[in-house]
Every structure is written in structure tokens, then in C-alpha cells.
Design a protein that fits this description.
With 190 residues, this protein is of the alpha/beta class. Helix content is 39%, strand content 15%. It has one domain: Rossmann fold, CATH 3.40.50. The chain is built from eight helices and six strands, in the order αβαβαβαβαβαβαα. The longest helix has 13 residues, at 124-136.
């Protein structure tokens, strides 16, 4: 798990009175909820806040925080609240893709270390801005591409490349992630 590397870097870059990294998770549906659970399992991390524009999304992540800590989760609908909070050391960004780059740039500008889910940006320019901002601000920024670094994935790639399944003539892929709509539906179409 490369998140430990991120957190180690984040911890070493902080002049903290506490030995724990205070993290806010921005975006707590699917992936954000899973990352919240992983963060709660790390002894050097405190999940200090959950952020999501859709208050209906807090349920399971907030419950996990309360079960682990014995305290109700702090929740916000606006990420600017945690960016303005000087007690938050780092943020995990698991928002919809179009917010990854802007949220990371805002977080670095606010002095936070950043773990951002893939894709980190929508284009090369936005990605370059993120790198430049992190370097200029002396912040740790990591992109979650751990799927490609898994040993099982690397072995599968090597197996295919070495001819283990013969000559590949065609490949098909699909993704079935049925999700509830995050929008609000009108009461009536009339």
C-alpha cells in the first residue's frame, strides 16, 4: 500500500506537536469511503473531517469514523472549510474526476499535503500546474495509481507479454459500476 509512503512523507514534512497526521477526506462516496476505512486502520492518522457536497453521501464513511473513534465524524459540504483549517495536515481527494486537479491545487495553496485519486488531472497542463505547485509549496503530493503497482497486476502483464496466452488479437473491456444519481430529481416533469 503506497498510501503509507504518502503519509510518511506528509508526516516528515510537518512540524507537528502531535505524532498523528490529521487528514480530511474530500469526496466520500465509493472510493472516498474505501480510503476513509483504510486511513482509519493506520495508527498515525486521524480522520479529522469528511467533505462532500451531497450530504446523503456521509452515511457509511461517518459511521466508520464513529465506530473507530467513538466520536461523531466532523462533516462539511464545502472543502474550503478544511482548507482554511490550520489543524488539518493533509487531504485525500476522491471527488468526481473533474475536481481532482482544482481541489489539489487549492489544497497545496492552503499548505496541505495531498493524496489525489486518479486521474490526477484532465490534461497535461493541469497536471504540470499540480507538480509545480507542490514543488513551490514544498508539499507532498501523491496520485493513487496503486492498481498498476500491485504484484498480481505486474505478474499478469508479464505473463501476457511473454506469450502466456498466445498472440493477442483482440481485447475487450467493460466497467459496470452502477451508481445512484447524485443530482436531485424534480418532483414532476410537468
Amino acid at each position: 500500500m503506497r498510501r503509507r509512503v504518502f503519509l510518511a512523507g506528509a508526516m516528515s514534512s510537518l512540524a507537528m506537536a502531535s505524532d498523528r497526521v490529521r487528514v480530511a477526506v474530500i469526496g466520500v462516496r465509493g472510493r472516498g469511503r474505501a480510503l476513509t476505512s483504510e486511513l482509519l486502520a493506520l495508527p498515525d492518522v486521524e480522520v479529522a473531517a469528511l467533505v462532500d457536497v451531497d450530504s446523503r453521501s456521509f452515511g457509511r464513511a461517518a459511521k466508520a469514523v464513529e465506530e473507530k473513534t467513538g466520536k461523531a465524524a466532523v462533516t462539511y459540504p464545502d472543502m474550503r472549510r478544511v482548507l482554511d483549517d490550520r489543524t488539518i495536515d493533509a487531504v485525500v481527494i476522491a471527488t468526481p474526476d473533474h475536481w481532482h486537479g482544482p481541489a489539489a491545487l487549492l489544497a497545496v495553496a492552503a499548505g496541505k499535503d495531498v493524496y489525489v485519486e486518479k486521474p490526477c488531472s484532465h490534461n497535461l497542463r493541469e497536471g504540470r500546474w499540480m507538480v509545480e505547485a507542490a514543488r513551490a509549496g514544498k508539499r507532498v503530493m501523491q496520485v493513487g495509481t496503486q492498481g498498476r503497482s500491485r504484484v498480481s497486476t505486474q505478474r499478469a502483464v508479464e505473463f501476457v507479454r511473454s506469450g502466456g496466452i498466445g498472440k493477442v488479437r483482440m481485447a475487450k473491456a467493460w466497467n459496470v459500476q452502477l451508481r445512484d444519481d447524485i443530482g436531485r430529481k424534480p418532483d414532476s416533469m410537468a
